[in-house]
Write a structure and sequence with these properties.
single chain, about 110 residues, alpha+beta, two-stranded antiparallel sheet
Length: about 110
């Protein structure tokens, strides 16, 4: 597999397997995945000659893990938006500008 195809495939796998670090071994010609560190879970890795096999092995491995070991991805917020509804954290070159929105007004921030 050429490097461009391998790189694209790794990106797709990384999106589909957010709990794993994915790479392609140029020398082995196989795909590899390492479970991202979770407290209380031993290091776990899978390896397969194809992306489909790797995805299947990772999914099977996840079935055996305790539920708290897996962290579901949280949608990324735009820069400057706090993870609380209707609150915008504003930054300026000289520092913090303040918190705005109905939540800030109601809590006396």
């Amino acid at each position: 597999m050429d490097e461009l195809m391998a790189s694209q495939t790794v990106r797709v796998l990384a999106d589909r397997l957010p709990n794993w670090t994915i790479w392609y071994g140029r020398h082995t010609g196989h795909f590899w995945a390492l479970l991202k560190h979770r407290p209380g879970v031993q290091a776990l890795h899978v390896e397969a000659p194809t992306a489909a096999e790797l995805e299947g092995q990772a999914a099977e491995a996840e079935r055996w893990l305790p539920r708290p070991a897996l962290v579901r991805p949280v949608p990324r917020l735009p820069l400057g938006v706090a993870p609380v509804e209707d609150v915008l954290v504003a930054w300026a070159p000289n520092g913090f500008l303040g918190v705005t929105g109905p939540t800030a007004a109601g809590k006396g921030i």
